[in-house]
Backbone:
C-alpha cells in the first residue's frame, strides 16, 4: 500500500509569503500544474525530478530551486525512498517579472548563504510570535536570488541617516511593530538595504532591536505590578511563552523570577 504523504501547510504572518509547505512524499507524482506565486524549494532528503518548460531538471539537497509563476511544471521522487521538501510560495511581486526567463533557464541555485537565509525564513515562520523576524532574511534572500538570476543592482544608495530613521520608526511602533516592506516604502530604501544599514549602525537586525525594546517595556510593566499575561500583550509579544523566551534570552532570568525580585 502506498505510503501517505506527510504535509504541513500554512500561511504565516510574513509579508510577501502566501504559503509555507513542509512535506515528505513517497511515490506521489505531481502532474503538470502551475502557480500564481514564485516557488522557492529546498529539498532536505532525496531528490526530485521535474519538467519545466519542456526541459527535464532535478532538485537536490544543497540547492535552492526557484520556479516562476504561471510556468507549468511537474514533480516526482527521483528514487524509491521519496523526498522531503520545504517550500516558500512568494507573492509574484516579490521578484520582477523580467526574471521569469532566467529562472526557467536556470532554476537551480547552489549558494550556501542563500540556502541558510531561506532556511531561516522557514524556521522563523513556524515559530509563533517570531514570524515578523523572517522579514530580514527574506529580504536578503530575495536580493541574493535576484543577483543569482542576473539582475544585478547598481551601486547602493547612500545610507546617510537611514539607520537612525528606521530606529525612530521602530521606536514609534514598539508594540505594534512595522513590517519591513512598510518601513522601506516610508523611508524610500530597498528592504535589504535597510537591513544592512541597520546592522552596520547598531550591530543587530531591526527585529532584534524591536524585541529588545519590547523586553525593556515588559520590565517596566512587571515592576509596576502588571500580571504576566497582560505584560505580554501590552509590550507587543505574541503570548506569554513568547515573552518568556525572549525575556530569558536577553536578561538571563524568566519574567516570573524578575517579578519576584521586587522588594
Residues:
Amino acid at each position: 500500500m502506498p505510503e501517505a504523504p506527510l504535509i504541513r501547510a500554512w500561511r504565516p504572518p510574513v509579508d510577501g509569503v502566501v504559503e509555507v509547505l513542509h512535506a515528505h512524499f513517497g511515490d506521489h507524482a505531481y502532474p503538470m500544474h502551475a502557480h500564481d506565486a514564485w516557488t522557492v524549494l529546498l529539498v532536505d532528503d532525496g531528490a526530485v525530478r521535474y519538467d519545466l518548460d519542456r526541459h527535464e531538471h532535478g532538485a537536490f539537497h544543497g540547492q535552492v530551486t526557484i520556479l516562476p509563476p504561471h510556468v507549468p511544471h511537474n514533480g516526482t521522487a527521483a528514487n524509491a525512498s521519496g523526498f522531503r521538501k520545504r517550500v516558500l510560495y512568494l507573492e509574484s511581486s516579490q521578484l520582477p517579472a523580467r526574471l521569469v526567463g532566467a529562472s526557467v533557464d536556470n532554476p537551480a541555485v547552489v549558494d550556501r548563504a542563500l540556502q541558510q537565509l531561506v532556511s531561516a525564513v522557514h524556521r522563523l515562520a513556524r515559530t509563533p510570535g517570531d514570524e515578523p523576524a523572517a522579514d530580514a532574511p527574506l529580504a536578503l534572500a530575495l536580493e541574493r536570488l535576484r543577483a543569482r538570476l542576473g539582475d544585478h543592482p547598481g551601486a547602493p544608495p547612500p545610507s546617510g541617516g537611514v539607520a537612525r530613521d528606521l530606529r525612530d520608526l521602530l521606536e514609534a511602533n514598539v508594540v505594534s511593530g512595522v513590517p519591513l516592506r512598510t518601513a522601506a516604502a516610508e523611508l524610500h530604501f530597498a528592504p535589504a538595504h535597510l537591513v544592512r544599514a541597520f546592522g552596520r549602525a547598531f550591530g543587530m537586525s531591526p527585529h532584534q532591536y524591536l524585541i529588545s525594546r519590547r523586553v525593556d517595556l515588559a520590565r517596566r510593566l512587571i515592576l509596576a505590578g502588571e500580571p504576566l499575561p497582560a505584560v505580554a500583550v501590552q509590550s507587543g509579544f505574541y503570548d506569554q511563552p513568547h515573552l518568556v523566551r525572549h525575556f530569558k534570552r536577553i536578561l538571563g532570568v524568566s519574567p516570573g523570577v524578575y517579578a519576584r525580585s521586587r522588594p
Notes: Residues 206-223 form the longest helix (18 residues).
